[in-house]
Write a structure and sequence with these properties.
The protein is an alpha/beta fold. The chain has 8 helices and 16 strands.
Amino acid sequence: MNALSFERFGGPEVLRYGQVPDPQPAGDEVLVRTGAIGLNFADVYRRRGNYHLAGAPPYVAGYEAAGAIVGTGERVAFADSPFANAELVAVPREKLIPLPDDISDETAAALLLQGLTAYFLTHDSHAVRAGERVLVHAAAGGVGLLLVQIAKLLGAYVVGLASSEPKRAAVLEAGADRALSYDAWQSERDFDVVYDAVGSTLGGSLAAARTGGRVVFYGMAGGDPKPVDPRVLMDRSLTLTGGDLWNVLRTSADRVTRAEALFGWVREGRLRVRVAERFPLSRGAEAHRLLESRAAIGKILLVP
């Protein structure tokens, strides 16, 4: 089969597209032929070496795809199983999410990992309540646009941060009450919760939260955060929490129940999935460059 792989950590230039051995399902695994693959910042972190990778190179990145089980044709998707940047993936059955007929492979691959992330951020990391003030960093990104929409579904007042006028327009289109540039947001204060996926902005996020408020840190798209003095938290009774989807998706029921909620919102037209661009898997390095440039609005897909 063909796959996007790398043998050393580094920039997009370390990625290679070509033949690797077909995966051999073991135990409770099944073989899935991918129809669409979601590209995420987690893939960038792994390629750079920020995240631990088990085994030996060549590494195949990726955790999210949709397609069909080889042999049965059953349409499925997954959001937390490795080696997804390939034509074939061996996936544990418990990590498979059945796809309804009205949810395409591309919609599932563009929605699941980031949608499930936005869901747990607004339900587990901080249970958003009607009337709360919510600040969303990187609001025009894949998670950001979904996070804005879900927070609005839950009745919050939402301010989104984005780096360009087209991105801010997309944030408003997603339903945000206001969209601000990164030059203008430092004066914003008194948010009940701040969602920070940029990392290097963490100090400003803490300043933007109200006394007794919460900051949810869940990504480092703009670089590693500076260490936080716990006295900053004590002085204003702030809560700083981390968010990682892998700690929330513990069972098959967790995956399916939450995915069905997302599918329902999509079906009702209350949650819109925006695809920024589609790349053939063979052009994966270009896709990584676009993602790292932070110029994309919405989700980047890889198509085998």
